[in-house]
Amino acid sequence: MAWLQVTVVVAAAPFAYVPEVLEPRSVGHFVGDVLTQRIPLDQAGRYWQPTSLPPADRVGLWFQRQSSRIDTDAGGRHFLVIDYQIINSPVLPVSVTLPALTIATRTSAPLKVDSWPIDISPLAAKPAYGNVEPLPLRPDRLPAPLPTGLMQRRLLGWSIALAAVLAAWLAWIGWQARRDVRRLPFARALVQLEALGAPADDAAAWICLHRALNATAGRAVQETSLAQLLAAAPQLEPMRAELAEFLRRSSERFFAKSPADKPFPLVDLCRKLRALERQAPLGRRASGGHGVRS
Asked: How far apart are CA 205 and CA 228, in angstroms?
């Protein structure tokens, strides 16, 4: 009867899954090292899924347990991964153990992980006697220099190529600017206005801008012929109001008995016209070399 009772108690005891844990090596560890346990969660097609993971916390004197996680390998097998970091350095080599764990699972039985021995060594040896000086630390061993000759030659080559591209680009910009000054009326007028340095009411400055308008339209542009100018150069349409004001003020400037002394921004107007001039298709840009019809 007593044997029957013992049998019943043993049969009622919950079965525990004790996997073969992939443990870290047991020797050669120092303060700061991280030790990783990989605990398989699959057995005979059954997935022992934990209901909760071991929390990140300090474990005893020697270890700090970091965040645990579940990994899946290429074959679809599940592993509970637990990292422990050594947080203290012993005076003499010491043997300790990673803690045993019992983890509840979504099955009726828990997951059990046995403790695992770990040897931790000090960073520097302590002498056996107090009156003996400790052994000096060995000097750092410098790593072998990497062969960088090929990388330096490539860097030099790419730097030369980049400098050549930048020089060619700047030369092209300069050539284009000089070409525009020769070919485009407002580009040429802007250079002449800036070179004059004359006040805005100077007759030469007004005539300079008039010549650019005439060259763009291919005819003499007056206050009554603004529409012909915009028909020949439709890219100037956004400046219709400013051009009309310039032509009106020019008529007063040269033909009125008492012209108004109010200044007019000739250079600013020429800069805006120069910007619009560059937006015109190449075939429609005025060259300034043809005759001007009266």
From this structure: 23
